[in-house]
Amino acid sequence: LQIHTISHRGQIINQPLRDAWAVVIDILRFTTTVSTALCSGALRVYPAGDEDEARSMAKKLSLEGECLLCGEVDGLPLPGFDLGNSPLEYTPENVNGKTIVTMTTNGTGTIRMCRPAARILAGGFVNVSALVHHIIASDPSNLYLVCSGQRDSFCLEDYAFAGYLARQLFQHSDSRVMASPETLAACRVMGDYEGDTLGVMRDCSHGKYLSSIGFAADQEACAQIDVLDVVPRVEGGYLIAEPPISNENERPESTA
Ligand code: MLT
Predict the structure, then answer these.
(1) Residue 152 C-alpha to ligand 1 middle, in angstroms?
(2) Which of 3, 66, 170, 222 gives 32 a disulfide partner, CB atoms 3.0 to 4.6 angstroms apart?
(3) 183-227 pLDDT, tens digit each
């Protein structure tokens, strides 16, 4: 297993994703939120390219069954949207049995930019062991950890999680794991936090911004480790939940 890390989505364009796997990372908050939504019973999540597409797609899908129009711009829900992009909104009461159409500043676009990849997964601290188990079980040759970043710039929380996930894969994979220099650097960044995921959320600029607009609780929610047993995977343009892990004993325990 060769692990590559893309530090923000502006760098995806020239990466050889074809035939490789991609894990899209947008810790604050899209990939934490989509993992929560699928665990809360959402049927599928459509990552829209822009607001117009989100509105038209939600209208179209509403003809097939209950559909929620969700997402944010600059962290805040758009007018007339059913939900914003806080994971705390995606409760079973709100999303169980429904299709979700969502549009966010970075995460949804990053998912769409990874289309050439053989398999696209998504997640964060909340479902890290489920991701590790899924990756180890299939043992792809090349794995790209794709940090969304913020508006095509580096962001600490995504990069730190890439390091956390890579460290887990080093620890639990039976096959030989090699890492790119960017991946090794990400491992060092996370190592420096010694598992203090909330410290990462408090240090990063988007975490501070979200707190300043009233979403301080999202820092804690996105810092939780292994609270969701779900692997969001892109299938036919939608994010769906991989079947839950069959044997709890096989799950690698999450450690710092
Ligand atoms: C993103 O897509 O960049 C984030 O999810 C934005 C946010 O929810 O604050």
Answers:
(1) 12
(2) 222
(3) 999 999 999 999 999 999 999 999 999 999 999 999 999 999 999
